[in-house]
């Protein structure tokens, strides 16, 4: 995001991450219950007329890329020409950053990198799955967490439960979980399974695989979302 000339948690033109302010939006148009007790959530008109967030907190009202109000309370109206930034829990510490009259904008990371920062606002994408790092590109192992700005140990160092998606050269989908692997090991596994392109997705307690009425891999917690393949 960008406030009064400072970028918050998006890359600069050289694809270098800036964490000058140290925060990011947890979810877009999702209930706060899916992001723990503390979070920053973004609500656009696609959510409906109101945020439907009933956990208190502070709602920053943005219209035409300008902060016009800050409201406490629940179920706040979403402006048709803007959005709501909802802060609660420990993330209330950032409330003072948003002052009435401040110019503000948001862009998703992928679109900025691809030179198309307005793709989400155009309504081109109805839904998306955030994932990474990339494991295989055109048949070759290309995993490089550092190059994709992943610095947390669970990606760069740990051996843990992991999930991955892959496509074979003839466009067959691979949905894979492993009990314990480093990210480099996961890339090797996906290559051996025949993936021509593959991506790491959320692992750890979030790894689960369900098939024909039974869990092949049981997640370590309740999952708020899943990728479903349904035969029609």
Helix/strand-derived category reads mainly beta
Count of strand segments: 15
Any low-confidence stretches, pLDDT <50, length ≥5? Answer: 2-22, 110-114
Q: Helicity level, as a percent range?
A: under 10%
Radius of gyration: 20 Å
The gross shape turns out to be elongated
Q: What fraction of the residues are assigned to beta strands by DSSP? A: 25-35%
**What is the domain total for the residues?**
2
Instruction: Write the element-wise H/E pattern from the N-terminal end onward.
Output: EEEEEEEEHEEHEEHEEE
Q: What is the residue-averaged pLDDT?
A: 82
Q: Major β-sheet, in short? A: 5 strands, mixed
Query: For the largest beta sheet, what order do the strands appear in spatially?
Result: 3-4-7-5-6
Give the N-terminus to C-terminus distance in angstroms: 40 Å
Helical region count? 3
Can you give a write-up of this model?
- The chain is mainly beta and 232 residues long.
- It has two domains: 2-113, no CATH class; 134-217, no CATH class.
- 8% of the residues lie in helices and 31% in strands.
- It has helices at residues 109-113, 153-156, 183-192; strands at 2-3, 6-7, 27-28, 39-43, 58-63, 66-72, 82-88, 104-105, 134-137, 140-141, 160-168, 173-181, 195-201, 209-211, 214-217.
- It has a five-stranded mixed sheet, with no helix packed on it.
- The radius of gyration is 20 Å and the shape is elongated.
- The termini are far apart.
- The model is unreliable at 2-22 and 110-114 (pLDDT under 50).
Give the SSE layout:
Blueprint: E1 2-3, E2 6-7, E3 27-28, E4 39-43, E5 58-63, E6 66-72, E7 82-88, E8 104-105, H1 109-113, E9 134-137, E10 140-141, H2 153-156, E11 160-168, E12 173-181, H3 183-192, E13 195-201, E14 209-211, E15 214-217
Parallel strand pairs: 3-4
Antiparallel strand pairs: 1-2, 1-8, 4-7, 5-6, 5-7, 9-10, 9-13, 11-12, 11-13, 14-15
